[in-house]
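Please annotate the following for my students:
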Amino acid sequence: MEFRRYQEQALKSDRIPTNSGNEIIVPLLGLVGEAGSLLTEYKKYLRDGDAHKLFKEGIAEELGDLLWYVANVASKFDLDLGEIAECNLQKCHDRWGWRDSEHTDINAIGYIFDRDFPKDECLPSQFSVEITEVSHDNSVKMQAFVNEKQIGNNLTDNSYANDGYRFHDVFHLAYAGVLGWSPVTRQLLGCKRKSNPKVDEVEDGGRAKAIEEGISALVFSYAKDHNYLEGIAALDYQLLKTIKNMTSHLEVDRCSLGDWEKAILMGYDVWRQVEKNRGGAVIVDLDIRSITYQPQ
């Protein structure tokens, strides 16, 4: 049965007067009550095991009641249950789709953002960044090199604590490699899209770089509380939603929550190795959307 037809038929059995003042709260309370009934059914199964012969029938009935209340709430808010289901599937795909296949949809990420620009304004499809650590003026600093030429400035942790944030360029490289997006990396590599002044201003300019740096700092704060993501397979949904909101006006908005999750997890896998070994080579490959580590 199609969701729309079910929703229409279910509404015919609604016995709550439309103008009673309870037409919204009753189905909402019904959802809570039926969820409790579903748990009660499962509690009986845990207690009685195979002796609970009607377990599946009971679960099916409780799920049916839940579906009725879901449809009723949707109707009361003038929402289409079919559209809700489709949006939810898209949300699930955006969040978890990258785990279902080795490569993510090329229409979503990759270096599609460079498609219409000269080669010297494109992020390189493959490149290696050598990261080293030096001590200077009683301060430990990070240096990065591409083809033996230093890129960017010497970086410290900019913190009272020695927390390894000086290696945070790894995160920018991960965004470049996995998402095909990183205004900071474009500046470091000298491949800003200057042939289009508006793109250069909006996508590769100061505000976009500040947003990317903000994302890096935001995720690092989260990661510090979660063992720097070691052994972590999934990130907090609200963290990813915040990142999406921060970048909603930029080209990278086309990347999904799952794309961001992949970029962050891969970036931290490399960062932990760089931080542990105080340097190493970071290999970025946009063709396969990956970032990997090689020891020095």
Observations:
- The mean pLDDT is 91.
- DSSP finds ten helices and five strands in the chain.
- The domain at 3-79 is CATH 1.10.287 (Helix Hairpins).
